[in-house]
Amino acid sequence: MSEMPSRTPIVAGNWKLNLTVGEALALVKALRAEADGLEGVEVVVGPVATALHPVAGALEGSSIGLAAQNTHWEDRGAFTGELSPELLKDVGCTHVIVGHSERRQLFGETDEGVNRKVRAVLAKGLTPILCVGETLAQREAGETLEVVLGQVEAGLEGVEDASAVVLAYEPVWAIGTGKTAKPEDAQEVHAAIRGKLGQVAPRVRILYGGSVKPANAAELLAQEDIDGALVGGASLRADTFVPIIRAALPGG
Ligand code: PEP
Fold first, then answer.
1. Residue segments in the chain with a per-residue pLDDT below the cut of 50
2. Which residues' Cβ are closer than 6 Å to ligand 1?
3. CA distances, 195 to each of 91, 183, 191 (Å)
4. Least enclosed by CB within 10 Å: which of 113, 116, 172, 239?
5. What is the pLDDT of residues 200-238, one digit of tens each?
6. Is the Cβ–Cβ distance between 129 and 94 less than 8 Å?
C-alpha cells in the first residue's frame, strides 16, 4: 500500500521590500491575535532583513515561523551586502525563501546558485522555501512543465531528503499581477512536481503562489497537491492574510 499523504499546509507571507520595523511589529501583533496557535496550519512571515531581529522578538512564544527572503550560501567572508544561513538562524529565522522569481529575474540568480543556497540553508537546519515557476512566454510556448521540473531538479540537486524542503510553484505571470492560475492548471503543475520527487513525494509540501487572495484561496487550497500558499501582496495586512490562513485549515 502506498504511504498516505499527511501534509500540514503552510501559509507563508512574503513581505518583499515593504514595511518599516514599526509597521512590521504592528502586523505581527495583529497576526498573533488571530493566527497564533492554530492547529492544522503552519504560518510563516517573511519581513525585510532589517526587521528580522525585532520581528523574531515579537514572535517569541508564538507558533508563527520567520522566513528570510534571501540568503547567500557562504556563512561568513568577503561578501559585502550579503546575509548567511548562520546569521539568519542566529536572529531566529526558521525558513528562508530561495530562488524567488524576482531574485532570478531582477538579480540574475541561476539554478546553480539557488541550489547552493538550498543546500546551505538545509545544512543549518533551516527550511528552504524553494520557488519555481514559468514566465508567460514559456507558458505560451508550452514549456511550463519542462521549465518548472527543470528548476525543481536543479534546485534539489544533491539534497538527500527533499521532504526537508518546501517547494513553491509560482507562475511568474501571476505574481503581483492579480492574475491567478486556474486551480486545475495549478494542480496539474503541482502533481507533475510531486511526480518528480520519488519516495518522499507524499510528504513534500508544495505551495502555490501568485496573487493568492481571500477570494481565491479556498479553491486553490482545495486542490489535492496544493499544500498551502506563498502570499505576497495579501500578506501585508492581517485582514487579507488571516482569511487565507483560515482557508488552509482542515475543513476551511
Ligand atoms: C510572491 O511574492 O511570492 C507572490 C506570490 O506575490 P503576490 O501574492 O503579490 O502575487
1. 1-2
2. 14, 16, 170, 175-176, 209-212, 230-234
3. 36, 18, 6
4. 239
5. 999 999 999 999 999 999 999 999 999 999 999 999 999
6. no
Amino acid (1-letter code) at residue 99 = G
For residue 213, the ligand 1 atom closest to its alpha carbon is 8
Q: pTM of the prediction? A: 0.97
pLDDT for res 252: 78
Q: Maximum distance among all alpha carbons in the chain?
A: 52
Q: Give the CA distances from residue 51 to residues 14, 23, 47, 138, in Å, rounded to whole numbers and listed in that order.
A: 13, 10, 6, 35
H, E, C per residue of the chain: CCCCCCCCCEEEEECCCCCCHHHHHHHHHHHHHHHCCCCCCEEEEECCHHHHHHHHHHHCCCCCEEEECCCCCCCCCCCCCCCCHHHHHHCCCCEEEECCHHHHHHCCCCHHHHHHHHHHHHHCCCEEEEEECCCHHHHHCCCHHHHHHHHHHHHCCCCCCHHHCEEEECCHHHCCCCCCCCHHHHHHHHHHHHHCCHHHHHHCCEEEECCCCHHHHHHHHCCCCCCEEEECHHHHCHHHHHHHHHHCCCCC
Q: What is the pLDDT at residue 2?
A: 47
CA of 175 relative to ligand 1 center, distance in Å:
5
82-109 tens-digit pLDDT: 999 999 999 999 999 999 999 999 999 9
**Residue corresponding to grid cell 498573533:** 32
Provide the grid cell at 167.
517547494
Atom of ligand 1 nearest to the CA of 102: 2
